[in-house]
């Protein structure tokens, strides 16, 4: 049930079996460095999201570049990180149900683990399990700052939950989660900035209210790859959750910078390597990477450095390409790189990163938290 | 890297941790029986597609209900089936590249394994590896009967490949693959029928040509869950590749029958079980099953037996539901069943089926070929 790696260390890139998830290590390392440099002069600390990579090896690289720990979305993801050597995890999500609450409390005995809340009943449950495990669990109240997903409304509803939390001996109020997911892919720079300015105002207003009631907020967590500079410079956010910056994808490549040009703070390091398995007509090629090799929720993948090829349709195990150049010599057996439409759910389809440097395979890293949905 | 099962055998259904892939065993067994009955009076034999379930336990149930073997899309999927006890596999796809050709030939020494071809160079490669492994490999020529994906055009192009194959000592010409994937989800009954009638004509015309040149075609393979009756009654097709009939999904539920009513040859047996993790406003609920728990390539999942709830948006680990009834009592911690938009890529996200009968967990089956893309 664990798939075999499609490559061996030292192998030339063109011998990698396909479909394979390639990580260009030089581009990845440059992305790590760029983020560290970009926020070096701001007060924000980076706590990158491990839901993107699901790999403790990568988490530890991020921490070596200054990250204070990682975010996770699931307890099982957090377990994979802690057992892989990460000592500080924020579960940037609500955790519900007895089995998960026990695992959360157990994990919080083994590492620093924080969790988000937005419901009084869930807060009560967390307190009970924390007491049973003899821990004091740090919780962040999730605030809806515009994504309209989880989280209570800013202001009074946050205060009510904080008052509840601070009366419970098993819990410690650690701050707010104010992540604006919907803002990450607003294409226009100014509109994207305005969405975060609006979020900052909501947080500010809530912080004022909490302060008037004597509550301090050590952590204000939020920010994704699309908006990280805005949160970093906000003077309000203290932690940044960005995850995709290490890999990038087609979706993020559609964001625009302040001048209306393609936004290029980071570069593409993640690819799906695929083989042409059928070349039935001059204008059509079929590759071996379909819905089970890449996620199409954010649209079709791009074809890397091939303007003459367009990936137009994914079925379960096939990708259909239109060949725009009638003289294209693409043949059965040729291999090309695809740029995933959306990196996070694409990574979740694989057990291994094939790390390449130049034309050789240098590293094969396990995607330890692949499928960790619990 | 293998996830833990989210349940234990004997557990009440409502205690299953989420997200979980539920299989209603009674509905599944009725679907197995319905397909067997539906084709019992036709000459066609069922070779169901294992790309749907990726589970040898299910493959063996299908064989116990009369299937002659299974189809697979990948060599790694075929390996999982053969090592799980299946002795007859058609790889209903082209296999390209040295590592896969070796594994294919090796597997063909261990079980009956057939493969599809649509390219002269690939045929030459297959012959060479077959000779190296001292086997004679059965191949089907894939014909494009309307899906415009892989496969050569009907008629003369097929004849040319057959002439090539029959000159090679390592290969045996076993017949044609004429699968019309694009027809499966044509909603209108008559249009769906006409698509298959057109495919049948193309196959007929090709068979005539081959017969005039002295070539017989023992196998004509095709047909999916959406069109299986048409191929079964065609007097041309000999094997049926339908896979989804055991599970069903939202996509197939949109097909119409001859009277324009929802088509109901089979019933929904596969569900994603999910927990309400946030209930921030009266009209909104958030569940713990998003893009990593279900595939949205064919649209959003349905909510089973809950007309008052609508799953409107999937993000990586969240599903956003609109609550249409303002008096709805849905609470954090409540569990509901989702009907996957598309069963095959949803199954590929999980390591385990949680088989339920009535209100109890009866079986936990490994999805052995989960992630088998090579």
Describe this structure in a few short sentences:
The first copy, chain A, is of the alpha/beta class. Chain A has helices at 25-38, 56-64, 75-83, 98-108, 120-132, 156-166, 189-212, 228-232, 250-253, 343-347, and strands at 20-24, 45-46, 70-72, 88-94, 112-117, 137-142, 171-177, 219-222, 239-240, 270-281, 284-287, 302-303, 309-314, 319-323, 335-339, 352-357, 360-366. The first copy, chain A, has 2 domains: 13-20 and 265-366, Lyase, Ornithine Decarboxylase, Chain A, domain 1 (Beta Barrel); 39-248, Alanine racemase (TIM Barrel, Alpha-Beta Barrel).
Q: Multimeric state of these chains?
A: homodimer
**pLDDT < 50 runs, ≥5 residues of chain A:** none
- Radius of gyration of chain A, rounded? 22 Å
Gap between N and C termini of chain A, in Å?
18 Å
The H-level CATH homologous superfamily of the largest domain in chain A, spelled out, is Alanine racemase
Q: What composes the largest sheet of chain A?
A: 9 strands, mixed
Tally of strands of chain A: 17
- The average pLDDT of chain A is 97
Structural class of chain A: alpha/beta
Beta-strand fraction estimate of chain A: 15-25%
What's the shape of chain A? globular
- Helix share, percent of chain A: 25-40%
Please describe the topology of this protein:
The structure is a homodimer of 374-residue chains.
Chain A: E1 20-24, H1 25-38, E2 45-46, H2 56-64, E3 70-72, H3 75-83, E4 88-94, H4 98-108, E5 112-117, H5 120-132, E6 137-142, H6 156-166, E7 171-177, H7 189-212, E8 219-222, H8 228-232, E9 239-240, H9 250-253, E10 270-281, E11 284-287, E12 302-303, E13 309-314, E14 319-323, E15 335-339, H10 343-347, E16 352-357, E17 360-366
Parallel strand pairs in A: 1-16, 2-9, 3-4, 4-5, 5-6, 6-7, 7-8, 8-9
Antiparallel strand pairs in A: 1-10, 10-11, 10-15, 11-14, 12-15, 13-14, 16-17
């Amino acid at each position: 049930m664990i798939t075999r790696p499609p490559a061996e260390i030292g192998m030339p890139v063109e011998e990698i079996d396909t479909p394979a998830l390639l990580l260009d290590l030089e581009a990845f390392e440059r992305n790590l460095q760029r983020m560290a440099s970009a926020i070096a002069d701001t007060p924000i600390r980076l706590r990158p999201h491990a839901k993107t990579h699901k790999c403790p090896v990568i988490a530890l690289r991020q921490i070596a570049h200054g990250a204070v720990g990682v975010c996770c979305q699931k307890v099982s993801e957090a377990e994979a990180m802690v057992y892989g050597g990460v000592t500080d995890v924020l579960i940037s999500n609500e955790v519900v149900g007895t089995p998960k609450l026990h695992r959360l409390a157990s994990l919080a005995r083994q590492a620093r683990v924080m969790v988000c809340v937005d419901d009084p009943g869930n807060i009560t449950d967390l307190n009970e399990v924390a007491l049973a495990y003899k821990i004091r669990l740090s919780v962040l109240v999730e605030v809806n700052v515009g994504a309209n997903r989880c989280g209570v409304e800013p202001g009074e509803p946050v205060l009510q939950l904080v008052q509840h939390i601070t009366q419970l001996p098993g819990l410690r109020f650690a701050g707010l989660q104010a992540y604006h997911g919907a803002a990450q892919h607003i294409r226009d720079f100014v509109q994207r900035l305005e969405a975060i300015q609006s979020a900052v105002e909501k947080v500010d207003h809530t912080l004022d209210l909490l302060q008037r009631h004597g509550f301090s907020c050590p952590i204000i967590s939020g920010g994704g790859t699309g908006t990280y500079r805005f949160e970093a410079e906000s003077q309000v956010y203290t932690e940044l959750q960005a995850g995709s910056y290490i890999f990038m994808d087609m979706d993020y490549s559609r964001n625009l910078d302040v001048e209306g040009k393609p936004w290029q703070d980071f570069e593409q390091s993640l690819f799906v390597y695929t083989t042409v398995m059928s070349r039935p007509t001059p204008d059509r090629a079929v590759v071996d990477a379909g819905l089970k090799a890449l996620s199409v929720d954010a649209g079709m993948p791009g074809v890397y450095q091939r303007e003459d090829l367009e990936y137009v349709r994914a079925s379960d195990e096939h990708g259909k390409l239109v060949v725009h150049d009638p003289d294209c010599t693409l043949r059965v057996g040729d291999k090309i790189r695809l740029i995933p439409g959306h990196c996070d759910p694409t990574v979740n389809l694989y057990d291994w990163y094939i790390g390449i440097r130049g034309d050789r395979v240098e590293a094969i890293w396990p995607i330890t938290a692949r499928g960790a949905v619990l």
